[in-house]
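Work package 3, deliverable 3.1, input record:
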Amino acid sequence: MPNYTAPVEDMMFLFDKLRNNKNYNEIEKYKEVNSELVKDILVEAAKINENLILPLAKSGDENPTILENGVVRTPPGYKEAYKKYTDDGWTSLSCDPKYGGQGMPKTVSGFFDEMLSSASLSFKLYSELSIGAYNCIKHHATDELKNKYLPKIVEGKWSGTMCLTEPVCGTDLGLLKTKALEQSDATYKISGQKIFITSGDHDLTENIIHLVIARASDSPAGTKGISLFLVPKFKVNEDGSIGQRNGISTGSIESKMGIKGSATCVLNFDEAIGYMIGPKNKGLSSMFTMMNLERIVVGIQGLGISEIAYQNSLSYAKERKQGKTNYSKSENGADYIIEHADIRKSLLNMKSIIEGERALCFWLSQQTEVSLNHPNNEIRQEASDLVSLMTPVVKSMFTDMGMEITSDAMQIHGGYGYTKDQGIEQLYRDNRITPIYEGTNSVQAADLVFRKLSNKNGNIINKYLDLVKAECNIDIDGIKPFVDDLNKYLETLKIFTSWIEIGMKDKKDDVSAACNDYLKILGLVATAHAWIKVLEVSFQDYENNKDFYEDKIQTAHFYFKRVLPRIDSHFKAATTGSDYIMNFKFN
Amino acid sequence: MPNYTAPVEDMMFLFDKLRNNKNYNEIEKYKEVNSELVKDILVEAAKINENLILPLAKSGDENPTILENGVVRTPPGYKEAYKKYTDDGWTSLSCDPKYGGQGMPKTVSGFFDEMLSSASLSFKLYSELSIGAYNCIKHHATDELKNKYLPKIVEGKWSGTMCLTEPVCGTDLGLLKTKALEQSDATYKISGQKIFITSGDHDLTENIIHLVIARASDSPAGTKGISLFLVPKFKVNEDGSIGQRNGISTGSIESKMGIKGSATCVLNFDEAIGYMIGPKNKGLSSMFTMMNLERIVVGIQGLGISEIAYQNSLSYAKERKQGKTNYSKSENGADYIIEHADIRKSLLNMKSIIEGERALCFWLSQQTEVSLNHPNNEIRQEASDLVSLMTPVVKSMFTDMGMEITSDAMQIHGGYGYTKDQGIEQLYRDNRITPIYEGTNSVQAADLVFRKLSNKNGNIINKYLDLVKAECNIDIDGIKPFVDDLNKYLETLKIFTSWIEIGMKDKKDDVSAACNDYLKILGLVATAHAWIKVLEVSFQDYENNKDFYEDKIQTAHFYFKRVLPRIDSHFKAATTGSDYIMNFKFN
């Protein structure tokens, strides 16, 4: 089983030194969320993740969730752990105190999401979608529904799901067939089949609240006729107590490559009673409230799994002797593999990506809170645009990098990485879902390029690039070489962006064929920007914590020398057009 | 279950049109191996792989090989299939007629290796190491041992293994602890533990012939005291019949991420009787005879798995509708995903890599045969040097690309790619061993850079680059843009090679930290070279098979525009030195 120590020091560094978004710091309700409080939370979070949840990863992989006589049973240990997890209030961390939550900002809950992803992604998924459902209900449902459902979800007694996908529609929700028939009491009868429903059924909570998209019988075809419904597994009585079973059955659960502790369900809705949430025919837009926040969390999953893969690679490299280094001082026998240049390179690659991503994510958490909670409309909108821009980037880049990092971890472990004992191959299998679900990474890339670069508020990407440029204008000698590198790639990104803008006019397939490369370049630049902000503090505050900051500076150095240059190839390949791709005749 | 159609047309194209190595064509014994004969073989090979062996992949994954009361049992169907497979003579394809083989060159058996890898890697491994053992015994053992063991191995009644790895030594064989104690009759008693032994025990053959490296009691420490022994599972009587069980037991079998139908064994040798093969203390060099040929076959495994992943991605993309394309003509509903630019790009990426690799492999097969069988010493040596140079490249590049391609196949399949039903995730898991075994890809990169670029015969890499340059000097207009691209990257590779040569003097860690990138660049260039040779025929012979050649030209176009530019980033990152990597203080 892999070991895990939550990176509390690095998280507290970000919270203490990089919580410098002026707008974020103006949000009244977070002024009390100070360093001491957060440190206490993270220390407790570390404990539960390291001790209670980490062992569930192996248990869930070896004893996958099963469907038995129509009942979904989670792996051994899940129930007990979930009880402790909810008793300790971890499901309520980021929720509104009005409904029993602790009201922590994403600058804090994001760290918890990372730790939980490191410990056990399968276990995490049982509460993760609850938060999605919570957000969606909170933003779009009536007060009656909110009061009835939210406190139980916040408490973790009930969980939530997002029911979008159907057999013929995943990416393309306009094709959906699930029907909603309005009743005389303004409820709806929902009928249809949903597939790939994460935590669609299980034995951890008393009730499961499904958020289902469906088409009302008088709604038009396509995406413009989709509405959103709250459909509980058990109906809820007036007094809030659990009532009769609703018309939902679990058809099957998927047998998957990884996240085997998570129940991925086929759900059959057969005249299940549901309640419309938000305006009729605007269901997709309501659903995307939760979907977008959820996509960032999926990125964080990739980060969390990367972190535990790195930690175990590092410790293995310190224990395993194999081969002599170029300038070995060993007189008999091999050197530790951490002394080999190629292994060091691989470890630094992991570390520089992980720490850069964590800093980028922290930056994004501040922006997200501003977008949700700043009193000024315009400031909220500006932040919201940046969050929209970065959401597909974080989702895709962090999950793709998660594959690279877990794969490199396997290589460092050699044959032991491929066998089950060390648990490294499980990290690789578990993470492999993250580039697929919540919209494949190619869907993210198309979303970025076709919908996020500019919107009704203007040219978002150029505003972002100007912001990066401005924030990198730092008068510290040590930072200059880093900024020079970044500025060069900012220039590349600007040229690429113009190329995209031109393509949008009459060469849209050029843009489609380039969008994955564009996303990767933007991700690499955004991470470099996050590193520059880390470096600024590291140089300014150097004398106060020399070892820590020297580590940061050297890690950043690796990122700028060995990771950032990936941009060159992406740019060159992507801008060769698409005629030869579109005209190709596949046999 | 994935479908598979053996790419016989592409293989026959290579055999008919690119079998143009003058030295290869001078090998007397292969002059009878003509197009008709090979076509017949490939058609039969396609049948057995498509119909009999392909279904074993799923069976082996769902019912892994088990160890039961000391006996290893292969998955359901393996025994029956193995019988048919040996009855039809497929184990003997490349073996010497003197021992009952069919004497086919690697230009033919390589195609069979690819098909078998596509159909079921787990099943393949039971006979693959037999060929390795066959080669090793044939080159190094006494006539007595050869006559006693080879015919049974060729026939497939007995199988073979390579027993190298021990708990503390994988990459670093000098650390091995297995002992060999000489007996008065010149046999040895072998004692020790070997791990990760592929096909180390199973129920498919009457006997298993282990080739074991061990240290004779009077041999020195380190790699210079290692000898090679033939150690049969059952002793063999004078008349060739099976005798008593030898002192070998199976301690356990590994539970692995993939290739679950293959038995990966811990073998305990307890005074097992063995026979020394080749000179005492020269065991590693004898073992490397088989190891090097085996490494090329591992590369071919990656190619074979890539091919089946591509075929299934292509057919899925033609069946699955999702989303509208940029210039959709569909009036209601979605377009087939094969019409989307990004999916087309992904498919062409796979195809252009696969077909380039297959052509490179065919080129290498001819060189290998020249190195083994040409009557002229000098020509043999020159070919051998090129084979040595390309062996780590083919092993690493093809297996890494296999991961990229099986991963892209999962992305194309979306959620269905991650579930067990379609079998795509199994390809990904099965292929994941290939960058690890037979020396990790990093070990290959170090081998390439530190041992293969130059040797006692001089500067091999420059000879190779000159050969590529000379062969690309083709006076055909259509080829010019391709050659121009390649020449630019040949120049990059030359500069990188000089940089490596300089580093070898006093910056060896720079070289170590750059070797993976160097291997990748050389692989990309070698594949481009193979493509140029394909293009030469395609342009010259265009009128005779327009559709086929147009497909080749357009596929090559993709490779040169979108794949080859990966070189830029590798070169830039790799040549930044290693001081900042070596001086880093890992916590």
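The radius of gyration of chain B is 24 Å.
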